[in-house]
TrEMBL record:
Highest rank taxon of the organism: Eukaryota
Protein's recorded name: CO8G protein
Taxonomic lineage from the root: Eukaryota, Metazoa, Chordata, Craniata, Vertebrata
One GO molecular-function entry: complement binding
Any one of the GO CC terms: blood microparticle
Organism: Thinocorus orbignyianus
InterPro entries in the cross-refs: C8G, Calycin, Lipocln_cytosolic_FA-bd_dom
Gene Ontology BP terms: complement activation
Gene: C8g
Domain (Lipocalin/cytosolic fatty-acid binding): residue spans on this chain: 3-138
Length: 159
């Protein structure tokens, strides 16, 4: 039910890079497809320095329902993802954990979500010990991310 297009609306994270570069956040679109009936293939389209990039990741199902695992390269690159809350039609709140570091992301089927959904997201952020100082919202201007993927993907990276 997570399959389809999503927009990254907000993220809460203690990531130093994000804190230093939060003024450069760009609209980010994500397409989720379900492979083999279980794994999530996630294609993220974002702009960086004027170029559109596509990042492809494959999350494998973990033991518990709604839990997924991304196995990266190298020590400490394993990321656990948990679907925290979603209505599947307007928003999804996902938790990501790498080692002891946790982040919370808010996705919407459109680049804007209701104030009630933002309130839910901010409650979930506080519940994991994060706060507004490390919460960032993505801009929703521009139209490059609404066009078909294959016409705008100039670069690609795979993890």
């Amino acid at each position: 039910q997570l399959a389809g297009r999503w927009f990254l609306v907000g993220v809460a994270s203690r990531c130093g890079y994000l804190a230093q570069h939060s003024h450069r956040l760009e609209a980010t679109a994500v397409t989720v497809t379900v492979e083999d009936g279980q794994s999530l293939a996630i294609s993220t389209l974002r702009r960086l320095d004027g170029t559109c990039w596509e990042l492809r990741q494959r999350y494998l199902p973990a033991e518990a329902h709604g839990h997924f695992l991304l196995k990266g390269r190298g020590y400490g690159s394993r990321v656990e993802m948990v679907v925290g809350e979603t209505d599947h039609s307007t928003y999804a709140i996902l938790y990501y954990q790498r080692g002891r570091s946790i982040s919370v992301k808010l996705y919407g089927r459109t680049s804007q979500v209701s104030d009630a959904v933002v309130d839910k997201f901010e409650e979930r952020v506080r519940a994991v010990g994060l706060n507004g100082d490390v919460t960032y919202y993505f801009p929703h201007y521009g139209g490059w991310h609404t066009a078909p993927w294959d016409t705008h993907s100039q670069g690609s990276a795979q993890e």
